[in-house]
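Page 47, continued from p. 46.
Same chain as before, 333 aa.
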Amino acid sequence: MDINLKWSPSPSVFVSSRKLYHLKSTKNENEVRNDAIWAQYVQSFLLVSIPFAAMVASFHLYPIATSIFHDAIETLSDAPFSPVDGGVLKATVIGPAINGIVMPVISLLFASQVSTIESTLRQRQLTVHTSLNKETEDVRVLFFLIDLFPPGPRERLRSYLQQYVAHLSEESATDVDWSGLRPKDDALLAVLNELHNISANKSSDGGDDSNDTIYVSPAILSESYSAMNRIMSERAARITALQTFFPPLQIATIAILSVLISLVFFIETDQNILLFLGSFELKVIWSMLIGMFAAVLCVVYDLSNPFGGTYQIPQIIDDELIPWNTDPSRDGL
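Result:
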């Protein structure tokens, strides 16, 4: 049966991965890499220090904040009288409604939202890391299998696969728009097309290679197909995980709940006797509350980028696969 595969890209269509990564050994590329590492350190330091900075700032700004809240309540309520007890009776009367109904509902909703977002983002990061590791190892296996192919197909397959390694490195950067990624990759399709041509005993340009006595062991060809299927499967899982985003409304919900909890705190503590006798303790509690909110937002922001921040995925493509892929000693294989 004659199999005619019309889509047959030439290796010249793809940029040589060997040339691309040769540039990485230059001084300018090393400087860019060092700047990126330094930027990662700065970002991690900021993510850790922002909650503490928020605690210090809120501790010193608490008197101003509580004064603004008190004046706003007095203006909005438009009450014809002022409580002579400093608001103690009012806090006692409204306390059961706040502590028995409002605060439990807000607290449970806040905790569930934070738990859902952080656990989902963390699981997404683990999925991306696992798929990337499996994908990398299958690429390594495929490189070994390609070395057993005849010279012509071997060079073409290595060229396509090196291009895919370059794609993996680019997709693992911190400034990539993951929404534009697609499970189908041109380099992988070229590898698959070349394997189909070898199975049909045809060259990639549509000619017949039977006169060149090209032969690939069926076992090697079968293992190559299996490795390709695993790579494409893991790539689909990785891209699906990377494109799992939370809508801005869910992040806004956490911010709104944080504001509501802060307002409830002001309502409960809007008493002259508390502000006079326990001002230091109230400052400490307020600073702890604001620091907790800042820490939650920092963790969510950190987990939103799997390849950056303190929870980042190690750069296994640059550190493991690329040096092996571009090793000059393998050119003679």
